[in-house]
Amino acid sequence: MTTGSPEGPPPQWKDIHQSILSTLDALNASTSWIATAATVGIEPVFERVLQQVCGPAEVSPQAYIEHITRDTGMRREVQQRLSRLMENPKLVTMRREAQRREAEHQLHVLHYVLSGKQPPEWVWTTLDEDQREQLREAAESGEERDDQLLPRVQRAIHKLEVTPGIYGLCEDCYAIILLERLQLVPWAECCAACQRKREGIPDQAPQPEVPITYF
Ligand SMILES: [Zn+2]
């Protein structure tokens, strides 16, 4: 691999860049990458594209990234492609499904610790013996009991079981609650803005979208 050493010809950045763009466009028309992106994010998908194109061109993916970081036009073209992939409706649906499943899992585990009521089999079987033992101790000690949190957790579990379509929607403004918020607070009834309103906290500037961290 070379990044354009003085002995060799300089890398054909334009051609490499065009190949990257057309590979990303081709991806958007297929579905093969969606399951990966839904579980581990878009970064590994992008990395595979970089390897695919940069390998045969004998440049390192890092050198390409450095090159387009200095070129606003090229960088923007790649960012647009990546944003388009992130907005793919199938990916969005699959991410939300995966998130719902994960939230349900977290909520059942939390419910066990809060109430002492053992979680369903599908949750229990995903835990290893150490985790089960820790949870059992916490549940039996009753130290984590929280009368305020327990009903909220029960309500979220009920929602997921009975009307999963409305889980993750704000109860006050019906907006979709950000995934990042649900990961931290799977029992959230509201989006962050409405939660602040409920608690009488003044509005803050909206949080920026999660950036793609390559540039
Ligand atoms: Zn809201």
Automatic annotation (TrEMBL):
Stored Pfam families: zf-dskA_traR
Coiled coil: none
Ranges of residues in domain Zinc finger DksA/TraR C4-type: 165-199
Renumbered zinc finger spans (dksA C4-type): 170-194
Gene3D superfamilies assigned to the protein according to its UniProt record, in alphabetical order: DksA, coiled-coil domain
Keyword field: Metal-binding, Zinc, Zinc-finger
GO MF entry, a single one: zinc ion binding
Presence of the UniProt keyword Zinc in the record: yes
The organism's place on the tree of life at top rank: Bacteria
The UniProt record lists the keyword Metal-binding: yes
Protein name: Zinc finger DksA/TraR C4-type domain-containing protein
Organism: Cystobacter ferrugineus
